[in-house]
Amino acid sequence: MSKLDGYIAEQFHIEAEQLNRAVIEQEQLKRLNELLTWCKNNSMYYAGYPDSLSALDEICTLPFLTPQMLAENHQELVCVSQSEISRIVTMQTSGTSGLQKRLYFSEHDQQLTVDFFACGLSELNVPGDRCMILMPGNRPGGMSYLIGKALEKLDAVPVPCGHDKSFAEMAELLQTQQVTTLVGSPVQILSLGRYLQHFQLSHNIKAVLVSSDYLPETVRCAIRETLQCDVYDHYGITEAGLGFSIECECHQGLHIRENDLLVEIIHPETGLPVPDGEWGEMVFTTLTRRAMPLIRYRTGDRARILPEPCTCGSVVKRMDKISGRMQQLDADYCMPVLDELLFQIPEIIDYQARYYKTGQKLYIYALAIAGEERLAEKIKDFLQPVLKDGHTLTLCCERLDETNRYMAKSLYAAKRTVIAEE
Ligand SMILES: [Zn+2]
């Protein structure tokens, strides 16, 4: 069983052996109805919603909440007083509207995230482990801070590192802090692994948890190979309180935090539910959130539920890894495709791509740990199968220069983007 089964059973106040689909769905309906009553009584936005449903699938009769609505109605969505809000996160919505989404969390909401993080991190940390956190937000309520709190619950030691240290600084922290596990974004961890390998620096890393970004298979394999360690994938978005789903030790998809989240996969155009196994847009409802509950929030992420049971024997629903944003995947050159090809090249640390539709020009800037002179040729070979007829490819390859602080910093500040222009 996955660690999540035990955790969810605990949240439902039952023994892990008693957990099954019927119990989970019954508890989800109970929580959904409590949420509907809470929302109806405390928020202007949800005032017209029903205060209960008689079955889980009746949720499809409720309207969707879009990022745009979240930006325009954030105050009406809030269900608690100002004094109960402990964290506000402001995020840009995608597209050109320039609207900002605003999310409000209470202490209770953040504690739920810490509890889920502790469960996920227990897949790879035992008491005494020392986990380096390559994430921003070490101030109270920030991402790194919440991960640190979760590690402390496990009697493991958080080693906050942030996301803007140079490789040399990170390598030193690994040594001096005797780090045994890592949490960071996939490419960031791969780059660190390639740096350590290139300079033949030893380490004690036994497992890593990657998050914040989707995990290309190429990158997973490369991390395993360079760091000689196990790789756990986690999916989380701010709107869902950062934690969403996590792999078990079988690595066959991500088990969903079903005690706190109700997930639906819908057809992006019709809005109707698609059967398990089929790809669609992920929509979720926060069952236990107090400050700003989201009911049927459209993520824009392309996802699917895996219908077969996981080898671990878990009864908790599993999703396939997120393959990208709905609207970006039909672009000529999307990140999942470029990632799978480019990260096969062992010298690459990171890259940026820009595609100009009108001129049919693709520009790639690649950063190498070594061998930058031959990198352009290699990239051309790797991209040949996807480069469309008549499109031109321009490359700029540079070697990582850590004496250049600007480059070392900007590597993470402006990393791995694929931008399509008209
Ligand atoms: Zn599993």
Short description:
With 422 residues, this protein is α/β, with parallel strands linked by helices. Helix content is 31%, strand content 23%.
The low-confidence runs, each spanning 5 or more residues with pLDDT under 50, are none
Oligomer: single chain
* CATH homologous superfamily assignment of the largest domain: ANL, N-terminal domain
* SS elements, strand count: 18
The succession of helices and strands, N to C, reads HHHHEEHEHEHEHEHEEEEEEEEHEEHEHE
SSE topology:
Elements lengths: L2 H9 L9 H22 L24 H6 L1 H4 L7 E8 L7 E7 H15 L8 E4 L9 H11 L3 E4 L6 H10 L4 E4 L1 H13 L8 E4 L6 H11 L2 E6 L9 E3 L6 E3 L4 E6 L13 E7 L10 E7 L1 E2 L11 E2 L15 H8 L5 E9 L4 E8 L3 H12 L8 E8 L5 H9 L4 E4 L1
Parallel strand pairs: 3-4, 3-5, 5-6, 6-7, 15-18, 16-17
Antiparallel strand pairs: 1-2, 7-8, 8-9, 9-14, 10-11, 11-12, 13-14, 15-16
Task: Provide an overview of this structure.
- It is a single chain.
- This protein has a nine-stranded mixed sheet with strand order 4-3-5-6-7-8-9-14-13, sandwiched between helices. The protein has a four-stranded mixed sheet with strand order 17-16-15-18. A three-stranded antiparallel sheet has the order 10-11-12.
- The chain has twelve helices and 18 strands.
- It has 422 residues and is an alpha/beta fold.
- Helices cover 31% and strands 23% of the residues.
- Strand 6, helix 9 and strand 7 form a beta-alpha-beta unit.
- Zinc ion binds next to loops.
